[in-house]
């Protein structure tokens, strides 16, 4: 989407791959430096020199993004790009947004290169870890829930048949896979909490909140609350049938957040997860192997991720 080459299978030394590893390590809850910075925020400047590899790769990563923008600006100036072929980078480069000036009037302006770099960086940061973790979690859950896997597979075959690349419309119709992914995100939420800053003093249900406080909403505790999800420890994708969803308050399950800061990658995230799983499930049966550990050990890096990867057995379908 940004012309940024990060195909790990072609190039295991790709900057993007190395940067994401360093970023994850650096923000992992089990990294003592990150842990100290979290508890004693004021120590962050002193701790930064211990985070050398991440800092070095961050510079390389940002330079790669700048290079993509420069190359694309030249291409746009020399050849132009057909509107049907515009990718996200083109939209960021050509689009305008409304900004309130000091005199209080609104005006439109384009994004500067540094603003485009920041947007790309946050889309990559927000998108890669969550997608990887959620696909890995679903693969694990498919392995340990063979009957539900069979229902998902049957639904894929009924809707997509033997088509190599399912269409958007077909992906939307994969209801069993939808339910399976949602139940996986309930038990293994890659984003287990949300954070909001109070913009004014207020009181909710007798609890005072002061302006400037950062409030963390731990969704994972709601997902394990028996009054919303009976027998919460049991994997049951039928909790996400339309009828069951309607019985619950909509805010009891927010895997992509809520409100104006809701995940902007929601649609692409769902589509990519489903497209990847359709490809895998049509070729392979996913089973537990002697190395499969269930419940899966997880770690916060900074998304909830499998602690030591996911081990399953893949058997080619005949
Ligand atoms: C399984 C996939 C994903 C999950 C579960 C997920 C989950 C979330 C959650 C819970 C938030 C916080 C929302 C809030 O505070 O209300 C968020 C924010 C964000 N996500 Fe995702 N996400 C996923 C995929 C993606 C993808 C693919 C992208 C980029 C293409 C992306 C980009 C972002 C960004 C940029 C933010 C910050 C938004 C803001 O602060 O305004 N996410 N995501």
UniProtKB/TrEMBL annotation:
Cofactor: heme
Positions contributing to heme binding: 263
Signal peptide residues on this chain, from the entry's feature table: none
GO MF, any single term: oxidoreductase activity, acting on paired donors, with incorporation or reduction of molecular oxygen
Pfam families assigned to the protein according to its UniProt record, in alphabetical order: p450 (PF00067)
Keywords, alphabetical: Heme, Iron, Metal-binding, Oxidoreductase
Keyword Protein biosynthesis: no
InterPro entries tied to this protein: Cyt_P450 (IPR001128), Cyt_P450_E_grp-I (IPR002401), Cyt_P450_sf (IPR036396), Cytochrome_P450_3A (IPR050705)
Origin superkingdom: Eukaryota
PANTHER family, per the entry: CYTOCHROME P450 FAMILY 3, FATTY-ACID PEROXYGENASE
Assigned protein family: Belongs to the cytochrome P450 family.
Protein's recorded name: Cytochrome P450
């Amino acid at each position: 989407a940004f012309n940024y080459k990060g195909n790990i299978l072609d190039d295991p030394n790709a900057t993007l791959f190395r940067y994401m590893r360093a970023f994850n390590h650096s923000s992992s809850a089990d990294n003592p430096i990150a842990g100290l910075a979290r508890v004693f925020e004021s120590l962050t400047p002193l701790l930064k020199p211990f985070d050398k590899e991440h800092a070095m790769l961050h510079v390389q990563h940002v330079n790669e993004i700048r290079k993509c923008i420069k190359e694309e600006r030249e291409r746009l100036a020399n050849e132009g790009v057909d509107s049907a072929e515009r990718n996200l980078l083109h939209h960021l480069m050509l689009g305008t947004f409304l900004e309130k000036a000091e005199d209080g009037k609104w005006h439109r302006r384009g994004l500067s290169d540094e603003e485009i770099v920041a947007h790309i960086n946050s889309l990559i940061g927000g998108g890669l870890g969550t997608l990887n973790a959620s696909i890995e979690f679903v693969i694990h859950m498919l392995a340990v829930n063979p009957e539900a896997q069979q229902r998902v597979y049957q639904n894929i075959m009924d809707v997509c048949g033997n088509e190599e690349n399912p269409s958007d419309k077909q992906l939307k119709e994969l209801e069993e896979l939808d339910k399976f992914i949602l139940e996986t995100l309930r038990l293994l939420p890659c984003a287990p909490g949300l954070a909001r800053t109070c913009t004014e003093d207020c009181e909710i249900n007798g609890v005072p909140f002061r302006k400037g406080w950062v409030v963390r909403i731990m969704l994972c505790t709601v997902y394990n609350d028996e009054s919303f999800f009976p027998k919460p420890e049991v994997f049951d994708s039928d909790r996400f049938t339309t009828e069951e969803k309607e019985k619950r308050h909509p805010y009891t399950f927010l895997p992509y957040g809520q409100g104006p800061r809701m995940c902007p990658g929601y649609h692409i995230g769902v589509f990519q997860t489903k497209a990847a799983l359709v490809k895998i499930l049509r070729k392979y049966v996913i089973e537990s192997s002697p190395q499969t550990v269930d419940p899966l050990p997880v770690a916060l890096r900074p998304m909830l991720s499998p602690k030591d990867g996911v081990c399953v057995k893949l058997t080619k379908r005949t």
